[in-house]
Amino acid sequence: MSLTDPFVGLVPRKMTDSELARAIRLNVAAEVDAINLYAAHMDATDNESARRILAHIIDEEKEHLAEFLELLKILDPTQALDIEKAGPKVRAIVDAPTAEAAHAAHEAIEAGESADADEEPVPTKPPGLGKAPTVGSLRQR
Predict the structure, then answer these.
(1) pTM over 0.85
(2) Which residues lie below 8 Å from residue 126, measured CB to CB, with a gap of 6+?
(3) With CB atoms 3.0 to 4.6 Å apart as the test, which of 47, 72, 96, 110 could cross-link to 102 if both were Cys?
(4) Is it the case that residue 124 has pLDDT exceeding 70?
(5) Percent of the chain's residues with pLDDT above 90
(6) Contact assessment for residue 69 and residue 25, using Cβ atoms and an 8 Å cutoff
(7) In whole angstroms, what is the distance from residue 47 CA to residue 62 CA?
(8) 47 and 14 inside one domain
(9) Which residues of 33-63 are buried (b: 16+ CB within 10 A; e: fewer)?
(10) Mean pLDDT, to the nearest integer, of 52-74?
(11) Domain of 70?
């Protein structure tokens, strides 16, 4: 079994913030990988004790993921700005009634404009769609 060698990334000097940010991105990937691995283990067992422990560990990994993302924002101010802009972009895309409107909203935000500067506010749910689908409603009968 191959284990991660903690000394691979060591250098004979202290890392710059940029180098550490790159290392933290690897940690982010490892946390996501761990979350998915533990979730797969949960899906593969009916042992309730194991499922509870795995769920607890998943929660801890998600906390680690959040902490690494916060550290990444400190180490990489450009990344911090991208993260800050991502929320409004995603909301504008999700709330847009059409793909074209979503693209226009995204472009407006990229240009530093409000997503709805020249338009009526976009409804959060396009009219006539009815109830949003759920996992259960997507299952084949």
Answers:
(1) no
(2) 97
(3) 96
(4) no
(5) 57
(6) no
(7) 22
(8) yes
(9) ebbeebeeebeeeeeeeeeeebeeebeebee
(10) 97
(11) 8-75
Query: What are the pLDDT digits (tens) for 96-115?
Result: 999 898 888 888 888 877 65
Q: Is residue 2 part of a domain?
A: no
72 contacts 66 by C-beta, under 8 angstroms: no
Total Cβ atoms within 10 A of residue 132: 7
Using CA atoms, how far residue 115 sits from 28, 33, 53, 97, 110, in Å, is 30, 34, 44, 13, 9
Residues 85 and 63 placed together within one structural domain of the fold: no
Same domain? 112 vs 70: no
Q: Are residues 44 and 14 in the same domain?
A: yes
Q: Which of 65, 117, 109 is nearest to 85 (CA)?
A: 109
